[in-house]
Amino acid sequence: MAIRLGLGLAGVIAGLPHGLRRRIEGSLGWLLFHGVSRRRKIALRNLDLCLPALTADQRRLIVREHFAHYARAFFDRFRLVKCDATHLQEWVVVTEQWRLEALKGSPVIVLAPHFLGLDAGGVRLQLCAQIVSMYSTQPSPSLNAWVLSVRSRFNAPVLLPRNDGIARLARLVRRGRPAYFLPDMDFGARDAIFATFFGQPAATVTSVVRLAQLTGAAVLPLVTTMTETGYEARFYPPWQHEKGEPIEVAVQKMNGFIEARVMENPSQYLWTHRRFKTQPPGAPSVYG
Q: Is residue 288, in this structure, part of any structural domain at all?
């Protein structure tokens, strides 16, 4: 009941005039930064590890901005549930869409790093193609249903629970459905290898590489970032993972691409996730 009431209130706030909503988002971001100490400490620790050349004040400013962006992305999800296709096209602008069109009919994995505009880009992608994607089941049935409602707005996407594995996903990719794939979270050591991310050992899922090698799919990055008026979903040049390519080399290439995009918009990356939770055997936790 509490979750339903909270979602209802957030939906009301999302419908407020732009200027008022932005002030509320800024205030909520400030409250999150000061009130949710566990996530603040995780974000600051991640930045300590990944961007040590910055001063402590610079890293703290990035985290404060991150929480404000986080609040905005949260309320924007309620707009994603209600907006029509015309408004979505104006609100989330796709750049370099020709890269996707050039691969039409071929197996494609759309690689989507965890920037806070992730859901906006995923819903906008549904207007470009009939996609398949995987999701992590939420602990609350109400919250899970809401997340799925956000991510299944247009063109009948196929949403698969992450614990189902990639067999069905691979079949659909072979048939020409682009897979919207989120590659940069720490899900533990299973199906992962340690590759560096900003110089730190990070348990990185091998699913993207294995799926690309299995299906012959091109890996087409799509990075969605916030703008003053909405979002920009930008496609980047695709790459291939041939069957003989060493998995360590392939995974590191993916991490290197994500690092470069993070440096372009550091406050919009999901720093509140414990990206280095899983450590190599014998190594202590970096989070205390």
A: no
Q: Where does residue 276 rank: exposed (0-12), middle (13-18), buried (19+ CB within 10 A)?
A: buried
At residue 194 the predicted structure's pLDDT band, cuts being 50, 70 and 90, is very high
Q: Do the Cβ atoms of 233 and 224 come closer than 8 Å?
A: yes
Q: Model-level pTM?
A: 0.91
Q: Is 77 domain-assigned? A: yes
Identity of the amino acid at 268: Q
Question: Within a domain: residue 282?
Answer: no
Long-range contacts of 198-202 (CB under 8 A, 24+ apart): 198/49, 198/50, 198/51, 198/259, 198/262, 199/49, 199/50, 200/49, 200/50, 200/276, 200/286, 201/276, 201/279, 201/280, 201/283, 202/255, 202/275, 202/276
The single residue listed with the structure tokens 């290898």 is 193
Greatest pairwise CA separation for the chain in angstroms? 55
The phi and psi torsions of 97 (rounded to 5 degrees) equal -65, -20
* Residue 277 domain-assigned (yes or no): no
- Residue 6 predicted with pLDDT over 60: no
User: What is each CA distance from 227 to 79, 111, 117, 127, 181, in whole angstroms?
Assistant: 16, 20, 10, 20, 23
**pLDDT mean over 180-198:** 91
- Return the SS3 of 5: helix
At residue 268's C-alpha, the angle toward residues 138 and 161, to 5°, is: 25
Coil vs helix vs strand at 201: strand
Tally of domains in the chain? 1
216/108 Cα distance (integer angstroms): 8
Q: Per-residue pLDDT for 4 more than 60?
A: no
Token pair listed for 128: 């470009």
Structural domain containing residue 38? 2-268
